[in-house]
Specification:
The chain is an alpha/beta fold. It has one domain: Vaccinia Virus protein VP39 (Rossmann fold, 3-Layer(aba) Sandwich). It contains eleven helices and seven strands. The chain has a seven-stranded mixed sheet, with helices on both faces. Helix 2 packs antiparallel against helix 9. The longest helix has 21 residues. The protein is globular, with a radius of gyration of 17 Å. It starts with 11 loop residues before the first helix and ends with a strand. The mean pLDDT is 93. Bound molecules: S-adenosylmethionine. S-adenosylmethionine binds next to helix 1 and helix 3.
Length: 263
């Protein structure tokens, strides 16, 4: 058995699945997740808040008229998935999912194929190679890049140490005006010690882990029209419920998110 076996090497998708109460994870993933929980006890809440941000931002895009979605860093399917939210709002929505974990795609095939009026496709791809994703035949079968696309990278970019601005500009250059960019990513701005300790758990396992400041995340939206309320923690982004988060709650969640439109 080599070091890449899922029994020997934890993966971010399965650690996240464990935080969300899923069953698609191995002992090696649960060990890493438990270690993270010791230093960041509220990370399960953060994962759920992040997931709810995906629900609200996808609905927002659908209501804004977006019918094509490119979701990178999809994760192991967790109901409702992005295509279910989008197709509930607009049944003809078309969704391309991308993840670099082959296991995610195995589960995606099993769980996401259905009789929807829209269409979905899956690409085993890495966000650090935007050209390969944009040129994948599965993408052009589902998405028309002459029409606007909702590009989401939710709880993904903290696993990417490469130059995010370069990655984003390659994607955004390929997308039509009226497209949207949706991001949610971990920050150490609120609770530096907690987040640094969690980052160490990933890094000692050779999993990339990179936190960003609010200024860095804001810079990723340069040249785009940021949707109100701008770059905020995900539980402060267009909440439907009445909820007054405290600064302590911001520290529990420790993420920045934002949605912006390409003019
Ligand atoms: C924390 S999960 C987020 C899942 C989902 N987007 C959500 O917010 O609920 C992060 C996902 O990103 C994937 N991922 C990590 N690095 C990636 C990369 N470089 N390219 C593509 N996917 C990646 C992982 O396999 C995992 O499924």
């Amino acid at each position: 058995m080599d070091g890449d076996s899922p029994l020997e090497q934890p993966h971010t998708s399965r650690i996240y699945d464990y935080f969300l109460g899923g069953k698609d994870n191995y002992e090696i993933d649960r060990q890493a997740a438990e270690e993270i929980l010791r230093v960041w006890p509220d990370i399960r809440t953060a994962a759920r808040v992040n997931r709810h941000f995906m629900h609200r931002s996808t609905r927002f895009l659908a209501e804004a008229g977006i019918r094509q979605f490119l979701d990178i860093g999809t994760g192991i399917p967790t109901e409702p998935n992005l295509h279910q939210i989008a197709q509930e709002a607009a049944p003809n929505s078309r969704v391309v999912y991308v993840d670099n974990d082959p296991l995610v795609l195995a589960y995606a095939r099993a769980l996401m194929e259905g009789g929807e009026q829209g269409a979905t496709a899956y690409i085993l791809g890495d966000v650090t190679d935007p050209t390969a994703i944009l040129q994948a035949p599965e993408l052009s079968q589902i998405l028309d890049l002459n029409e606007p696309v909702g590009l989401s990278m939710i709880a993904l970019l903290h696993f990417v140490e490469a130059d995010i601005n370069k990655i984003l500009s390659t994607f955004l250059d390929a997308l039509a005006p009226g497209s949207y960019l949706v991001i949610c990513t971990i920050t150490a701005d609120f609770a530096p010690e907690q987040v640094a300790a969690a980052q160490d758990v990933y890094r000692v396992r050779k999993l990339p882990a990179q936190v960003r400041t609010r200024d860095e995340v804001t810079s990723w939206f340069a040249g785009l029209e940021l949707v109100d309320p701008g770059v905020v923690p995900p539980h402060r982004w267009r909440l439907v419920e009445t909820f007054e988060p405290s600064p302590a709650y911001d520290a529990k969640i420790s993420c920045w998110c934002g949605v912006a439109r390409k003019p």
